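User: Fold this; tokens only.

Assistant: Input:
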Amino acid sequence: MQTPAGHHLAQFNWATLRHDPADPRVAEFMENVARMNMLAERMPGFVWRHLNDRTALRKLARTGTFAPARRFTTTLSVWTDLAALERFAFKTVHSRFYKKRAAWFEPHEGPYMVFWFVPQGYRPLIPEAVERAEHMLARGDSAHAFGWDWARAAAPPEPAQTAAAQS
């Protein structure tokens, strides 16, 4: 998929740890979060990463998938394009951790990641990411919010407006 001119690809993923962060059963994951973030930040095509302000998610007062919980974790980042994100996710040591996700995270039905295009230089925040995810979970893939299958489609969707552009 080609990223539309003047845009980057935002991605937001979420999961719930099977055990408390201090539990030895998730220690390998917890001990490597900083390492994976540093690896991502050094990858060609990496643009930006939200710095995991857990209070941002708690302030949303959501229910369901995005209800605040001690074991709930998210990642919000921006990449130049899908190919750059895929290189990081599946062609580096990150892929070993990705393959072990079932040991560390509770299973859930449906997608665990959402993508959308943002204008170059724009930095999405957690409330926008959650809104995009909820939109995709409720309505399916669209230009506003889409998953891996849509992202891998041959023709890119036209970018939907960002929250900042809508106000």
